Amino acid sequence: MICDKLKDCMEQTKHTESEKKGKKRPQNGKRSKDGIYQQPLSQPPCGDIEKQKKCIDFLDNRSRIKCEEKGKTYILDQSKECPRHEIIKFFVDKGIITNPEASTNYKCDNALLVRDSGIVVLVELKGSDTHHAIKQLSATLLQKDLYPAWSSQQRVFGRVVCRSTPPRIQNTDEYMDLKEELHLLNGNLKIVEEIMVEKYDELGQRK
Questions:
Q1: What distance in Å separates the CA atoms of residue 82 and residue 66, rounded to the nearest whole number?
Q2: What is the pTM of this model?
Q3: Residue 13 burial (C-beta neighbours within 10 Å; 0-12, 13-18, 19+)
Q4: Cα separation of 104 and 107, whole Å?
Q5: Within the chain, where are the H helices?
Q6: pLDDT tens-digit map of 96-144
Q7: Residue 79: C-alpha distances to residues 111, 115, 185 (Å)
Q8: What are the residues facing 157 on neighbouring strands?
Q9: d(C-alpha 72, C-alpha 18), whole Å
Q10: CA 118, 119, 120: angle at the middle one, nearest 5?
Q11: Are 68 and 36 in contact (CB under 8 A)?
């Protein structure tokens, strides 16, 4: 299944208010020093709380947003931002896209939404098949049920973290096509080996 409520979820998801007037906020309603909220999320547009848990890893303004799988890591570092931005980390594979489509469709691993600035970062963590990673990002970006959610934002970026980068990958048709699609959405494409730590204010830089 491919979620058809993603745009609504991106716009409407928030933390429920845990304190009532005249009552002390409970301990689990506090925000940590790193901006990690403890309150549960609001009712999702799809009406399925269990699915929401599979789709959303977190919604808060922590300083470093990490996507990690099999030794490959992407980190969006907003520690120097003041105030820090509220970010939703979505699981795309087996979250926004679930079986049977997850078993047959190309899709990336994660999507990061920076709420107040309208920025989306699509992230694919890959082994050695970088060509396939690019196809996964492209398919996620252009998927007809998801594209309205991405294109409603101000900027969309693509990030691939892989074990190794094939020579001349930037000359391939799939790379150039994805780069152009992201450019039309005011974004860019970057491929880095093993680990990528990207400062928030460097998203728009080519390198």
A1: 19
A2: 0.90
A3: buried
A4: 9
A5: 6-12, 49-55, 101-104, 130-142, 147-151, 173-184
A6: 999 898 888 899 999 999 999 999 999 999 988 999 999 999 999 999 9
A7: 19, 16, 26
A8: 121
A9: 36
A10: 125
A11: no
